[in-house]
TrEMBL record:
Pfam families the record matches: QueF
NCBIfam families: QueF-II
Protein name per the record: NADPH-dependent 7-cyano-7-deazaguanine reductase
Enzyme class: oxidoreductase
Native species: Methyloceanibacter caenitepidi
InterPro entries: GTP-CH-I_C/QueF, NADPH_dep_7-cyano-7-deazaG_red, QueF, QueF_type1
Pathway the protein takes part in: tRNA modification; tRNA-queuosine biosynthesis
Subcellular location: Cytoplasm
Summary of the function given for this chain in its UniProt record: Catalyzes the NADPH-dependent reduction of 7-cyano-7-deazaguanine (preQ0) to 7-aminomethyl-7-deazaguanine (preQ1).
Length: 176
């Protein structure tokens, strides 16, 4: 029986992404945590934020991370503080690697920081790592002393023509 000629199949975006990550992991941009056992860092200073190549750097779009169970410590009382974070960004050449981001956020659990400091520290760390064209972070903090504190920060200007959804977090209303 005659052998059929093989068809050349175009690579899917997922295959292109896998190749890009594999290629990057052999360089200085190598991934240290993805696909490996990685303990929760003791503090944000010990955490390693990582990035992966954006398979669509020529397409303006928004990526969103939502972290509804963020925890850190009050620097005055030592009591836990809780927040719901929404991070939106318009990527350029890089995307934040999600496992490293999860570990970075978890590293705040035993860190004393005010709401404003935690929110801006996270936003600035991602902006420094990725150099996106635009980024915003909303820190929706649960009440401390009966007062909720929400913190917002933006980096850059949103690219023209992209859809930026509402962050979807209702203002705190207590029992009202």
């Amino acid at each position: 029986m005659a052998k059929r000629p093989s068809k050349k199949v175009a690579k899917s975006p997922a295959n292109k992404m896998a190749e890009a990550v594999k290629k990057a992991s052999g360089k200085a941009e190598g991934l240290l945590q993805l696909g490996k056992a990685a303990p929760l860092p003791a503090s944000p200073d010990d955490a390693i934020l990582e990035r992966v190549p954006n398979p669509h750097p020529d397409t303006p779009y928004v990526a969103r991370f939502t972290a509804p169970e963020f925890t850190c410590l009050c620097p005055v009382t030592g009591q836990p503080d809780f927040a719901h974070f929404v991070l939106d960004y318009a990527p350029g050449a890089w995307l934040v690697e999600s496992k490293s981001f999860k570990l970075y956020l978890g590293s705040f659990r035993n860190t004393a920081a005010f709401h404003e400091d935690s929110t801006l520290r996270i936003g600035k760390a991602i902006a420094d790592l990725l150099e996106p064209s635009w980024l915003r972070i909303g820190g929706y903090w649960f009440p401390r002393g009966g007062i909720p504190i929400d913190v917002f920060w933006q980096y850059g200007t949103p690219p023209e023509g992209i859809w930026i959804p509402d962050q979807g977090v209702a203002p705190y209303r207590g029992r009202g």
